[in-house]
Amino acid sequence: MGNQTWWVIAPESGFAFEQRSNGDMVVVDESAAEEHVLHGYEWMHVKHPTATTQQIKVHGEGPPPFGKWVALDEG
Question: What domain of life is recorded for the organism (predicted)?
């Protein structure tokens, strides 16, 4: 796994997550004009103590190639 990092999508990216009935995790922009299925990424729910909603974090050598992502420091 080498240099893999957990990534969270930045709030200002304009993207949100949807989980489809078939289990796919999809990243959709707020205008619903663009969507991407997270193929090949490990993902899990994460809730930060200061957040009011859950976020999704993805695991990979780099962030997915759409939206703005921030490396999650697991401390």
Answer: Bacteria
For β-strands 5-9 and 15-19, DSSP reports them as unpaired
Q: What is the DSSP string of 2-58?
A: TT-EEEEE-GGG-EEEEE-TTS-EEEEETTSS-EEE-TT-EEEEE--TT-SS-EEEE
Tens digit of pLDDT for each residue in 26-54? 888 877 788 888 877 888 877 766 666 66
Q: Which structure tokens are listed for 13?
A: 């990216």
Distance CA 44, CA 52 (A): 17
